[in-house]
Each structure stands twice: as structure tokens, then as C-alpha cells.
Amino acid sequence: MPRPRLKRPFFARSVHEVAPELIGATLLIDGVGGRIAEVEAYHHTDPAAHSFRGPTPRNAVMFGPPGYAYVYRSYGIHWCLNFVCEPEGSASAVLIRAIEPLEGLPKMRRRRGLTDERLLCSGPGRLAQAMGVTHAHNGLALDYLPFELYGREGEPEIAVGMRIGITKAADLPWRYGLAGSKFLSKPFR
DNA sequence: TATGAGATCAACT
DNA sequence: GTTGATCTCATAC
Fold first, then answer.
1. What is the CATH number of domain A8-178?
2. How far apart are CA A187 and CA A189, in angstroms?
3. Which of A9, A87, A99, A174 has the most CB within a 10 Å radius?
4. Intervals of chain A under pLDDT 70
């Protein structure tokens, strides 16, 4: 995979710039992962963002510098992986929602207890389970192991839509995906 | 295909 | 005590 590795300055921009550029990029954790197929942007002025109401022990990482992983527990059982960005210095992040599995398939299948490739990483909770993401990854830098992040090649066709699974500000079109990919958590309209 | 419950934790009212 | 950036399994059309 001879592509430029994404460094922390890549994330020192608005989520609205970073999120679409992450589509098609390659994410590996301990050598396991694939191509990012779907993300959502969460802006600190956005009522749906965890950081909207200010810092708490859980979301503290979001208020730190860009280029770090923010991992939180969702609905008590799932882990969700975010990349912290920096619009005006605070508390925005990109939620990684789906990945096209390319590396470490056996490991992902074992962790998920599934063989169907399409169900391995198509959703934030699934992806975290398949890639072994836990609270242990919260606050880790994205340009050091176990993370490996490589920029995309060319300009993939990006689909834009409304975000999923939220009630506040649900109409904002801040969901980005690889157009036509089979690995989306839900198709775009 | 479509809806519904359950799992289970942190933040909020 | 309720809700949520979710997923899976069960039961009902």
C-alpha cells in the first residue's frame, strides 16, 4: 500500500473538509482494517454532538488536540470510533461508520463471529468490534501504531446524506459515503 | 420485510 | 428514571 500516510495536521481542519476526504482512505489497527466507506461529521455547535454541552470525563478527548481517537460506549454495549478534528480549536469529530474489509479478514471474522463480509464492518458498532477497538484506544494518536492511516487515491465519488440514528439536528446532511459501495450501513438516496 | 425487545453504561432531567 | 451518534435476535405479517 504505497500511499501517503496521513499525519496529524490532516485533522487540524474543519470536520466538513476532513470527513469527505476520509472516504476511500485506508484505516488499519494492528494491521486489521480496510477502506473507509462511510463517515459522519459532528461539529461542536451541533446539538447531536457529544461535545455540544461541554466537556465531561467521557468526551474529554474531543476537547483536546486534533488527530486523536475518541472512543465511546454506545447504548451500553457497542464501541464507536471517532477522529478528533479542529475547527477553531475545540470539540469536533468524525464518526467512522463503515469500512470495506481488506486486511486481516480472518481476525475480523473471528471477532465478529460471522463470515459475511458485508456485515463485518458496516456500522459503527460492528466496525469497532471487528477491528478490536475498545476504550483502550481512547486518546491514542492516529499517526502512531496501532493506527495506520493512508490517504485515498484519486477522487472517489462521494455520496452525501442525512445522518443516522440521531434525533437532534437529524436533517443536517453531514453523512458522507463511497457512492455505490456495498459496505454502507445504509444506502444513500 | 417489518417492527419490537433486550443488552447495559454515562450523562442528563 | 430516561435517553442515546447501536446491533442482534425473535416474532409477526
1. 3.10.300.10
2. 7
3. A99
4. 1-2, 88-90
